[in-house]
Design goal:
single chain; 15 strands; four-stranded antiparallel beta sheet; seven-stranded antiparallel beta sheet
């Protein structure tokens, strides 16, 4: 993930339990942040210059990119995946890998709990992976990589987060044959 204004890249790997901060201008590693779990994803809030690293079983590590120091380790209590940042509200959304395919909302004060689902259409299980935020519409998109009961087929569902209300809805896509 890249902080465009600061010219910093944050990268993680599944072998070393760490997040590395690289200077684009200096073409060099400027800091390494140790983590207590295997990191899987990084998202950056461009307004506050904070990185959020999904750190395996149990927490999301917040990193202040202006000081290049670890901040809060936010407990999520289950394996977490893809992270989205709403650049308008500076809220982070983290997919939780559990039996309810939840999205957790995080702000500077910590966890704000699961994202509300007014449509009541989140899948009953899943791994929420692969995400992107569309700034022009203030919508986030995250793929629910779950399997319908008794099949090996991916149902192709996408959860959409409304950045104005911080709520989510699921849309189903047809299964490719």
């Amino acid at each position: 993930a890249i902080d465009q204004e600061l010219g910093l890249v944050v990268t993680v790997g599944s072998v070393a339990f760490q997040a590395d901060i690289i200077s684009v201008a200096g073409d060099a590693l400027v800091e390494t942040i140790p983590l207590n779990g295997v990191p899987t994803d990084v998202a950056i809030d461009p307004l506050t210059h904070r990185a959020f690293v999904s750190a395996g079983q149990g927490y999301v590590q917040e990193i202040d990119l202006t000081t290049q120091e670890a901040e809060a380790a936010i407990p999520v209590y289950v394996e977490s995946g893809s992270i989205l940042i709403n650049p308008v509200s500076s809220k982070a959304f983290v997919g939780l890998f559990n039996s309810s395919a939840q999205l957790l909302k995080i702000s500077g004060s910590g966890s704000e709990g699961p994202v509300a689902d007014p449509s009541n259409k989140f899948k009953p299980a899943g791994r929420l992976l692969f995400s992107a935020w569309h700034n022009a519409t203030n919508l986030g998109f995250i793929v629910n990589n779950s399997r319908p009961e008794g099949t090996d087929a991916d149902d192709g569902s996408v959860i959409i987060i409304d950045g104005d209300t911080d709520t989510g809805a699921r849309i189903g896509l047809p299964i490719a044959s």
